[in-house]
Amino acid sequence: MTSFPAKKFMKIFFILTIVLFSSLFSQAQTVKKPSPPTNAPSAAKHTPAYAELLLRRTERESELERFLLDYTEEFPKVKELKFELDLLKKAMDKVTAVNASESGKLTLALGKLMVRKVELEIDVWSLQLQYKDDHAEVKRAKRKVEVYERAIKEIL
Predict the structure, then answer these.
(1) pLDDT per residue as tens digits for the range 118-146
(2) 82-104 burial, b for 16+ CB within 10 Å, e for fewer?
(3) pTM of the model
(4) Which end of the chain is more exposed for a tag (fewer CB within 10 A), N or C?
């Protein structure tokens, strides 16, 4: 007679175990994994546009280090390179601000447009060191920058 309650206990234990595992399994199926944020800056860092800007920045940082070995911070080319690095940082920040869902826009062509715009902004900066803002050369250079800015905005 002692085996009957043990068999009944084992049967109840087995049923409860199955119920417990099935409820845990069904709960695990319904638990949602956290989705990545919609604006993941790291996603933009893996795009061709970002890579193009990073390449340019790296080239300029290397050139700046070479100049700083022989010249001071006041040397015109050092100033120009620092100005360009600042512009490149702003362009890279603009790229990383793009939502991950729109990262398909961050193409190599966009990166090249952004690098070229930086080059044109340096031209404007250099011209402004020589001429006033109302000088024809400065105005022409500013218009070129605006053309590139419009193209970039059209893509983004």
Answers:
(1) 999 999 999 999 999 999 999 999 999 99
(2) eebbebbeebbeebbebeeeebe
(3) 0.72
(4) N
